[in-house]
Amino acid sequence: MNVIKAKDYEDLSKKAAIFIAARMVQNPRCVLGFATGSTPEGTYSELAALNAAGVVDFSEVTTFNLDEYYGLPGDHPQSYRYFMNEKLFSLVNMRSENINLPDGMAADPAGDCADYERRIREAGGVGLQLLGIGRNGHIGFNEPGGEFSRETCLVELTEDTKAANARFFGADETVPERAITMGIGTIMRAGEILLIANGSNKLEILDKMINGPVTPTVPASVLQLHNNVTVIYCD
Ligand code: GLP
User: Most buried pick, 86, 122, 187, 211, via CB within 10 A?
Assistant: First the structure.
């Protein structure tokens, strides 16, 4: 793994955005995997600025997001589709037909998950996948467990994750119990991975991810088995 320490959050965001922008310059028709959470917000804002400055062009780019809460429609302010629209897609020249997220309202989640995998394959696979990391080591919404999931699937969220994400929800709202997430296998099939982590509360899990045993009890540790991973973090 290529591990880079940024000076601070602003530096991390700029470095991550330039990293992604470089891939977009190399291949204007690239397929990007995007993530949500608070960490990528700065990266998206920097990418939007690069787009406004004419440095990068999203018009031919295809995106697949990692995950979506199950039970939230795309216009719900806590849905990941809403987040992506607010933080990036509405700010850049993406074509709506090139934007892909799991459907949080899918009546047939298993069918929707299989369809998501098919769409990724038909797009030629994800070239660069951006990841954050949960404080319990989850990537996407792949929670610690007994095995690595192979494909996009419906999962139960852990109490720890619901507690961590409750800050985004109002006092009268509850965090959904379930989510649809790319599987660990889906993530590992990306050509390249960029994982970003912000803050001293992520240092312990980063150490386990990079230096600990590869185990589904720390889902991100599987990235040790991928041959093209860059980590940018700051404390
Ligand atoms: C959520 C997302 C993850 C993300 C994690 C960390 O649970 N499903 O993809 O990595 O939050 O979020 P944050 O960046 O806010 O710490």
Answer: 187
